[in-house]
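Team,

Forwarding the record for the chain on the shared tracking sheet. I've put the sequence and predicted structure together so nobody has to dig through attachments.
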Amino acid sequence: MKKEDKELIYDLLKKADTYVTGFTGDAFKGQVAFEDDKIVEESPAMIKSVEAEVEAGALGGPSSASGTPGVGEVATGVGEALEPTPTNALTLNDLNAKILRCTRCQLARTRNNVVPGEGVENPDVLVIGEGPGYDEDMSGRPFVGKAGVLLDKMLAAINLDRTKNCYIANVVKCRPPNNRDPEPDEQSACSGFLEAQIHILKPKMILCMGRIAGHKMLDTQTSLSQLRNTFHDYNGIPLMVTYHPSALLRDETLKKPAWEDLKAFRRKLDEITGK
């Protein structure tokens, strides 16, 4: 390997480690001098020896006991595989365990509990909010406060339920202080988790509750009034944006248009499921 390639890889690892931990670790302090690798001619005996080690799992195969990521795995810099091998797919429990350990952004310092999500696997509908509030932060469950009670009623009105055919998650998994809007960097830190949830759950439809969830999922700053009352496409999944339950608690005049959205959402779901 060339000296320049080693320096590039070292710099990328240093930045990744700093991003995960929030500071420069001892392993990346000081100057490191790199040199080009010397080219060594591979003899038939050397090639045969390497092949034998691979077969025995000595070079970090899936069964390696050394903790080295196996073939197809990506190491994080803290010794954890982010991407499983094809024969060991990431499960929802695996993902939730990673979410619970996350310290990627400043919200980790002020939270009481992480709120990964709640519901059934392989749901008809994935409901996405913006982030946990006080009650959610204290309980570790999504949408359990006053807005959550209203959300459950809204879902029940169109025959949806978090215990039967829905999964409920948020753009960010930790409560922003004073229930402020999550910052862009906080949303970005959690975006991989939400994408992984969608990949694992494979919902038939997505329902975004409020402006922030809609903006994040559709990568737009279009107003909520323009986003709602229509269907959007998220990687082949029909997606609708409607008013957040907390907005309905503040302004009852929004309940009628929200109900129109929900009825249209249910009709679309019936078309997809054939019910």
